[in-house]
Design a protein that fits this description.
Blueprint: H1 2-19, H2 26-33, H3 40-64, H4 70-77, H5 80-89, H6 94-113, H7 127-142, H8 147-156, H9 162-185, H10 194-217, H11 221-243
Helix pairs in contact: 1-2, 1-10, 2-3, 3-9, 3-10, 5-7, 5-9, 6-8, 6-11, 7-9, 8-9
Length: 244
């Protein structure tokens, strides 16, 4: 029980910080769970469940305040959903899984740290589906929602205002996390402790409520993005050093 309380406290902090940037926190949930005795396939599923809990409430809040632009979001998710499902079906050896996660997070953190609004990358409109599909597949494989990969690209291309990008990332994470869970359940034997998952879900729900409201009413999103980038960088380096 003390171990679960510690884990729930860490998850609460992660959810608060990440949801303020429109993320679910899946990458850091996975990194944290790697410190505890749990099958890594169950880690992926737990991270995705917590992602859904956090971003579901974020999506409701963002939609209420009209930060969700559905016509622009649909091209990003049209291929990401089926490809996240396929990625979730893949069975990786534990070391390969964490090296892939660490490497992908390292690239995402570097992109976020180097984000400079004066340097705009123009992406053709037709490429949105390909970008969303590729990120969706990677997200399904590593067990996160993918917003942490999508957000840097959207910021670098000045795709929208920071709060609109945060809302877009939240929806992207929601649909890909759901698809990833379905893919995992269709392939893998799961042995989750449902009572522990329920406690963690309550912790991230509370954190997600706080973080999303800070984004909408108080926080400057670029500050949160910088903090998040350095957190992701630390997590990625830790995973790479451990499993290389």
């Amino acid at each position: 029980m003390p171990e679960l309380f510690l884990l729930a406290s860490i998850f609460f902090i992660i959810a608060t910080v990440y949801s303020s940037a429109g993320f679910g926190g899946g990458s850091s949930y996975l990194a944290t769970l790697s410190l505890f005795p749990m099958a890594f396939q169950d880690m992926r599923l737990t991270a995705l469940i917590c992602n859904i809990v956090v971003v579901s409430s974020s999506v409701i809040l963002f939609n209420k305040h009209k930060y969700i632009k559905w016509s622009r979001i649909l091209p990003l998710v049209i291929l990401s959903i089926p490809l996240a499902y396929l990625g979730g079906k893949l069975l990786l050896e534990e070391r390969s899984f964490f090296l892939l996660l660490g490497g992908s997070l390292l690239l995402a953190s570097i992109a976020m740290i180097m984000d400079n609004r004066e340097k705009v990358i123009e992406f053709p409109k037709f490429s949105n589906a390909a970008i969303g599909g590729g990120i969706g597949f990677l997200s399904g494989v590593v067990g996160i929602g993918g917003g942490i990969f999508l957000s840097p690209l959207l910021h670098l291309s000045s795709w929208g205002k920071p709060k609109v990008i945060a809302a877009t990332s939240a929806i992207f994470i929601l649909v890909n996390s759901a698809a990833g869970i379905i893919g995992q359940l269709s392939t893998n034997a799961i042995s989750l402790d449902l009572s522990s998952v329920a406690v963690l879900s309550l912790a991230v729900f509370a954190g997600g409520q706080i973080g999303a409201r800070m984004t909408i009413f108080k926080f400057k999103p670029h500050i949160v993005r910088r903090i998040t980038a350095f957190v992701i960088l630390i997590v990625s380096l830790r995973l790479l050093f451990k499993y290389l």
